[in-house]
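Reminder to self: tokens first, then the designed residues, so the page reads top to bottom the way the pipeline ran.
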């Protein structure tokens, strides 16, 4: 028989007024953290996939409608997190900053990897000045 260890997290859910450890509340927090990470990743994908070769730092993002959409989706996600009546409707829970920061950390990693891919696609080999580089010929779709 398995016995649960003592709960070391002193977090009381605002929705149920019970400890989060070893309850269904923990699942609600995990689902909310996954939802926020998915929203953050969708925003990052939109920003990084604007161009196949050119860096986001070089050409920026001038489409005001898309920038407004990104800001609106982030604001709506934060409203789902921190407005208590919406917790009962959508089953979300309020998260600590470090749960949200994990999504941003992996989002930044995804941006760095995509910018590296774009750099490799732009780079020209010194031996093949008229042709495209090896990465562009073999790995770029």
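Designed residues (141 positions):
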């Amino acid at each position: 028989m398995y016995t649960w260890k003592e709960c070391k997290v002193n977090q009381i859910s605002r929705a149920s007024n019970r400890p989060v450890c070893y309850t269904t509340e923990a699942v609600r927090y995990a689902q909310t953290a996954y939802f926020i990470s998915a929203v953050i990743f969708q925003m990052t994908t939109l920003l990084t996939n604007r161009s196949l070769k050119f860096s986001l730092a070089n050409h920026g993002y001038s489409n005001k409608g898309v920038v407004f959409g990104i800001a609106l989706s982030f604001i709506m996600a934060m409203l789902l997190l921190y407005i208590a009546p919406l917790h009962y409707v959508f089953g979300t829970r309020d998260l600590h900053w470090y749960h949200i920061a994990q999504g941003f950390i992996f989002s930044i990693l995804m941006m760095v990897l995509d910018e590296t891919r774009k750099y490799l696609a732009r780079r020209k080999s010194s031996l093949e000045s008229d042709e495209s580089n090896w990465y562009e010929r073999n790995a770029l779709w």
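The longest helix spans residues 97-122.
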